[in-house]
Structure formats: C-alpha cells, structure tokens
Target: Tetrahydrofolate dehydrogenase/cyclohydrolase, NAD(P)-binding domain protein
Amino acid sequence: MKIIKSNEIKNDILKNIKYCNKKKSLLIISQNNDLAVNQYKNAIIRRCNEFNIDYIDKEFSKEDNHLDIINYCNNLKNIDGFIVLQPLLESTDLDYLRENIPFNDLDGFKYDSLGKIMSKKFENLPQTVKSIIKFINYMNLDLEGKDIIIANSTNIIGKPLAMYLNYKKASVTLFNSKTKNQKEKIKNCDIFISAIGKANYYNKDYFRNGQIIIDAGVSFVDGNMYGDIDYEYIKDLDIKIVTCKNGVGSITTLSLLESLLYS
Model:
C-alpha cells in the first residue's frame, strides 16, 4: 500500500493564498451541533485567522428556519462568498436556501451552481470534490476509459464528481445504500472513491492489487476520526491510496479559501 500524501498540493494552495492581495469576506452558515461540522468550521476559522481573512460565523438555533436564514443574509453587506455546513435541521428547507441565498457560492450549494455543473462548467464545484480532483491531477491519472466507482450519490460529492469524471471520459458508477454486489463491483473497478462516513467499513475483501483508492469519508468513534477504509487490513495490497487524515480533508479548507480569494 502506497499512501499518497497532500504536502505538495497543500504547499501549492498555500502559495496561492499567501500571494493574493485581495481582501475578501466569508460567511459560514451552520445549524447543527455535529462533531464533523464543528471540526470543519473550526478549521475554516483557524485558517481565516491565519491569513487575515474576514469571516462571519453564523450558527442558527433550532428555532430558526430557512426564512430566518435568508432574512439574515439579506441584511448583510460586503460578503464575497458563503458556505453552508450541512446537515442543517429538518425544519430548514434547503431548496429555499438554494434558490435565495444572495452571495457567491463557494461550495456548489445553489441551484445555479448545480446547473452549471450539468453544463460542464466546473468553477463552482463543492470543495470536497475540488480536493478529490486535485489529488487525481497530482497523481497524473489518465481517466479516459477507466471504470470508477463513487460510494456516494449526494449533490455534495457523488453527483457533481460523477459529472466531472464523465466529462473526462471515465465510466462512472454511483453507489447508494441499495446497490447490490458491491464487493464484486468494487474489486473490478480501476478507481474507488468513498464518502459514506462509516468507520473502517471497507476491508481487504473489497479490493485487489493495482487499484487506486480515494477515501473522502469522515466519521468519529469515541472522539477519534476514521475514514471509510480499514487501512490496517489492506496494507499488504499493491495499491495507491489517499487516506482521510492526510488526504482530501487536509486540503479542503485551504481549497475553500483559495476559491474565495480568486472568485
């Protein structure tokens, strides 16, 4: 098992951020006391402070809904970009937010961003997807004709990533919770990308030598962070893998700020 690390990718993004003289302001929207959300938000805030980027951290209460969020946004000025940290509460209508948030979309959240992705315009891809693509480019992978499986079918990761990979002439399969014969299908693919958020879910039975694995899943057990892949049980395989800890998640926050500054 060869682990593909993020150091060079991270350094390139850091250079882009440090050498940008633009002054921008970020709005961070959240509404759920979720451990993964809080970790991501804290990472964003820490990097904003590091690079002197203005931000508003707005956490809405359980009494608030989509109308309160839009009313708040409409009364703000000088916001250059926003990110909605999901999940929000069930009482908050995401469709309404996607149609009405007035600011520049940095994470593929609004309907116009999703529409552009369908039209092969990938500037507003979600940040996790952008980070996965950065690793694909870093590994200089030829995607044409490759069989790629994505274990995620959401608007946040699976669907926009599939559109991009299909544009690159790969054959893409999206998995959901009802997909049958998963072990056989994963073992036969060239590239496997996982983002299901289940700790150590995929073991050696799913993989074979020669594959490329990108683990974009994050979950917490007893306060410890895990990816979707059980690395211990695949360490003897001849594979290349991007892990959750020094991989996609380690550059997603920087990618967000890079997108903000260069938008």
Summary: Residues 126-249 form a domain with the Rossmann fold fold (CATH 3.40.50.720). The first strand starts at residue 2 and ends at 3. The chain has two domains: 21-106, 126-249.
